[in-house]
Amino acid sequence: MPIPRHIRAARNPGAKLSYWQDVVKPGLLGMMILASIALCGMAAKAQEADTAPALRPVSLMTLEAQGGALERQFFGKVAARQTVDLAFQVGGQIQRLDAPKGVYVEEGQLLAELDLEPFRRAVTRAELSLEQAERTVARLDTLADQNVGSRVQAEDAETQAALAEVQLREARDALRDATLRAPFDGLVANRLVANFNTVSPGQPILRLHDMSEVWIEIDIPERLFDLIEDPRAVGFTATLSDRNADIPVELREFTAETNGVGQTYTVSVALPDRADLNPIPGQSASVVVRVDQTLRPGFVVPASAVMFDADARPYVMVFSPTGADEGQVARVPVTLSSVDGTTLQIDGDLQAGQEIVLSGGHLLQDGQSVRRFLGFNEIN
């Protein structure tokens, strides 16, 4: 039986060198070769990982349809449907001014009257002039028919008679205009002259409020003026006092131009005809405007979600998922608006439920692949 090499080496110390060369050295070389191969493979994988493009993490938000109601309160004043200054169309001395301030008057009621005697005399003179002109026409027509008088003179007399008739109508109109009556049911706001004063034609005598419908006028800033564009989505309630709160009112009209101060539009709403309401023009009031956001298009987003291109046109980056957390972004143009001056609203080719980039969209390219940002503790 042959003796093992390591036993022979132990018996013969000179055989140790042969054992190193024959057994140990080849084994070590093999292990080193295997280790080198493994390290090369790991280095290749690391190089592949370094050369593969890394997906940029992006923070996303989901577009949600607008809901709820937006409320804004505006302070204003009670106003009549219309306010007119009444005046005589003729001049003269006021003999009667029967219109106390703050009193309701009916349509056709006598409010003021001038001294009528001069106007009555003018009517009498006009009537006499007309009678004289008609007699002259009859006499000259008879003479012309008998070839005794001129036909031209007869025609001139007819013209004078027609002028006399016009003067009579004017005198009667002046007599009628010397009496001032209420053109509608209303409230006497103020007397602008005192009794027995002599006034000229067109000089205001009384100020009268048309109280057939009572309005409240409020001033709305131009940036909020689109609140009243869709009457279906807008509701108004008014408060006159502690006893008259939350009164439903209706939109009547608004000015089509801004006021000189503050760039505001005047909006008029009408109070209901209720027995418990007795508003007076000039009384303070407040109006709450409620806008149903569900009927308004667009989505409310933070300012960081909106970017601008080189031509200053706004856009957002819409995220389209291609995997669990990966996807692509696409540039979508939008239009901007603000309902209340503090929130930003966008509208465009967008749908509720879509995701857009919340911030950092200016660093992305159209069609770029990205991944969701899962938080600072996310595992890559």
TrEMBL record:
<dbReference type="Pfam" id="PF25917">
    <property type="entry name" value="BSH_RND"/>
</dbReference>
<dbReference type="InterPro" id="IPR006143">
    <property type="entry name" value="RND_pump_MFP"/>
</dbReference>
<dbReference type="GO" id="GO:1990281">
    <property type="term" value="C:efflux pump complex"/>
</dbReference>
<protein>
    <submittedName>
        <fullName>RND family efflux transporter MFP subunit</fullName>
    </submittedName>
</protein>
<comment type="similarity">
    <text>Belongs to the membrane fusion protein (MFP) (TC 8.A.1) family.</text>
</comment>
<feature type="domain" description="Multidrug resistance protein MdtA-like barrel-sandwich hybrid">
    <location>
        <begin position="83"/>
        <end position="204"/>
    </location>
</feature>
<keyword id="KW-0175">Coiled coil</keyword>
<dbReference type="InterPro" id="IPR058625">
    <property type="entry name" value="MdtA-like_BSH"/>
</dbReference>
<dbReference type="GO" id="GO:0015562">
    <property type="term" value="F:efflux transmembrane transporter activity"/>
</dbReference>
<feature type="coiled-coil region">
    <location>
        <begin position="123"/>
        <end position="181"/>
    </location>
</feature>
